Amino acid sequence: MNSLILAVVGVAMMVAGYLLYSRFLGRRVYKLSASFRTPAHELQDGVDYVPTNKLVLWGHHFTSVAGAAPIVGPAVAVIWGWLPAFLWVTLGTVFFAGMHDLGALWASVRNRGQSIGTLSARYIGKRGSRLFLVVIFLLLLMVNAAFAVVISGLLVSTPTAVIPTWGALVVAVLIGQAIYRLKWNLPIVSVIGVVALYGLILLGDRFPVVLPETVLGLSAGAFWIVVLFVYAAVASVLPVWVLLQPRDYINGLQLFIGLGLLYGAVLIFRPEVVAPALNDNVPDGTPGIMPLLFVTIACGAISGFHGIVSSGTSSKQLDKETDARFVGYFGAVGEGLLALGAIIATTAGFRTLADWEAVYTAFNEGGVAAFVDGGGAILNAGLGIPTSLSATILATMAVLFAATTMDTGVRLQRFVVQEIGQVVGIKLGTAVATVVVLAVCLGLAFSAGADGAGGMVIWPLFGTTNQILAGLTLSILAVMLMRKRRPVLPIVIPLLFVLVVSVYAALIQLGTFYRDGNWLLLILDAIIVVAAIWVIVESAIALNRARTGAPESDGEDELDSVGAGGTRE
After folding, report:
1. Model-level pTM?
2. Spatial separation of the C-alpha atoms in residues 552 and 93, rounded to whole Å
3. What angle do CA 533, 534, 540 make, to 5 degrees?
4. Of 15, 310, 455, 498, whose Cβ has the fewest other Cβ atoms within 10 Å?
5. Distance (Å, rounded) from C-alpha 21 to C-alpha 100?
6. Roughly how many angstroms between the first and final C-alpha of the chain, as a whole number?
7. CB 149, CB 455: distance < 8 Å
8. How far apart are CA 54 and CA 252, in angstroms?
9. Is omega for the bond preceding 51 within 30 degrees of 0, making it cis?
10. pLDDT tens digits for range 297-328
11. Mean pLDDT across the stretch 132-136?
């Protein structure tokens, strides 16, 4: 199989999904209204609620949900063969992820920017919402702690990425000032920002930064972890326009340029896919493909974390409700393109099947390193970019996206901590909640030793927890739409599929943790499974109540603040 075929078919499916299916969802299912007054205008405060150009907001949303996961998941899952991963990424992006992300954004906008956890109280019930918050908190803890480990590892293994990683912060702050203070033209700012960022990449490739073995008594990796969390804590309390928005926007442009280079190299070089379509010769100890494929590839097909971002930060910045289609659905398409690029890089970036098998010697042996090596080889062969610079470009891309997810994740976890405080009757300010998040994340990171690798301790639970959360988010959307007597099959079919495979995978993990004597993960997994089943039951009751109860007026919420003359996309 030639990789060009995979690229053309995959890109065509995702573009068609945005042009056709997302339009159907926007018109018939979510009924987006251009005149609806969004929370960004109604509650504008210049910190979290900020009306934002849809291109800039797309950059924030896309890079926040992307991170390293759409690289890591597919790069691991190809051990079962490229075909299952390709089908799940393409079909999942079109019919699952885009609908889920757009829906979570719409649901939050229609409820004054409330998070998906808070919405669960209104549409499912208070008992279910409290368990929902537990699942969200654990998921964010996994993401923040694990991504810190991934980023620090890349900064140590690829020192050429250090200068562009931290230099991008300066570029982002200047871009934010240019857009919001100086009111510069967005295309001009974009060009300047991209040129500056790639200038930093060239500078970093020439001047790698290698830390000594110990810094302030910490290993190089542990030092980077501490610095990353301090940065993320500061970034999480700044107004979104100062750093978060412009950083994510310029990173979004950088990713599409990076993907353009990768896909352009595939077009020119047309490397053969050396990995098998279905791999019958998996290494010993590799788990079965069902249902593990559907939780190993989460981001890039469907991911519950996206619902947290959609309802946590993006909904508070949406200028017009009709922008949700571009921000939410096309954001998922962008992530799908990244996942597809990861599949191509890790299956066609090796010369022979033997070379590929030498990397995939065990489950979880792929990941970011396989993406950087394979993608770098394709860039070198197709475009003549030196191997070192190719690795720097791809490593920087992975680091920047993991970092944007991490700083957004810390902000979101702070929101969740404040919501949990409200449930137990304690009002927590921004500073106190941020300190709590920082303490918990750093505590987990250093729980297994001074190297900071403890952030990976609970990571094995991420896939199942993430997909369970996606299913629970879809259950809220189903209840909302049922109340309004709108089409629910586009939500219910993915809902049932995701819940079945994710709960099934979590139960399989319970058995694995028990046999391995891993009591911490066993207990946490049991808590997640019980919470999920409880919320599923509550959701089924709420869905039946919505089906049999009096329907909500299809336009009653559209009359809120704007009158009945709203135009629809």
Report:
1. 0.85
2. 30
3. 85
4. 15
5. 13
6. 40
7. yes
8. 13
9. no
10. 988 899 998 998 999 889 999 999 999 999 99
11. 80
